[in-house]
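Appendix B. Chain record.
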Amino acid sequence: MKIVVIGAGAMGCLYGAFLSEKNEVVMLDSWQPQVDVISKNGITIEEKGQEKQYPNAKACLSGKYSAAADLVILFVKSIYTEDALALNSGLFGENTLVMTLQNGAGNDRKIAKYVRLENIIIGTTKHNCVNLGSGKSRHTASGATTIGSNHNAVENLNRVAETLREAGFEVEVSEDIQRILWSKLFVNLSINTFTAITRTKIGFMVEDKHAWDFARRLVYEAVEVAEADGTYFDRREALESVRKVCIDAADGYSSMYQDVMRGNKTEIDAINGAIVEQAKLYGVAVPYNSLIVDLMHAIESAYKYNQQERT
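Structure tokens predicted for this chain:
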């Protein structure tokens, strides 16, 4: 397949690297130095202290590549989805499939402006990576990639699943992808925000009783919103799924942690912010998630102040 990955960060590089061994892969990114190094050397994945080179992956500056693709995979932050789609609209032909494995909610609605509904694949991944820069990613945790569709797309789902499996990914095709997406949101709204605020590895959240109480409050609020929206969860099981991720990816760093450490804008509005907005629709009280959204925005605003203090 001709595959274009929009977003050559940690996760984009992982999927692009693995897929490049049996497919034509082009990585698109807005950061010129990342594009240059991938164009020259390909992608490097570090795993368990060993590095492997994937020289077949090519790269281009976002917006500068317009050949129609068989499959487009979105790995930009949710806050940049609309801009990335508009900038790269030339990628979308009549039969182009678009898969989002991004954090946050609502990305599929943005994609629907560019391709048919049955060509949209939505999903989650249990892989975790850290961006080392210069076309390198450290692969810190593995797991299933779960994909599905809100429309009649069995043939398209099977095609994408087979392509991912040929690249070495474990793939599950779900008939209830909304439930999977809610489950991923529970993980992100607790782990991402906590590790970004405390600047710790993922595993710390289950090691400290205060941290775990933090997670419990956020997840329980989100479960109430999910139920109001029509998807029902046992809140203890939802919290247990978060605990399992913390254990499985204990030595990893969340994407929001990496954003804060680099002084970048986070996806807080598409994660905890999505819970807050949904809660307004149903009249559900979510004081802890609301507080976290405000706190993360304050942390983002403090980047400039902290830089001035260091200089």
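Further analysis of this model is presented in Appendix C.
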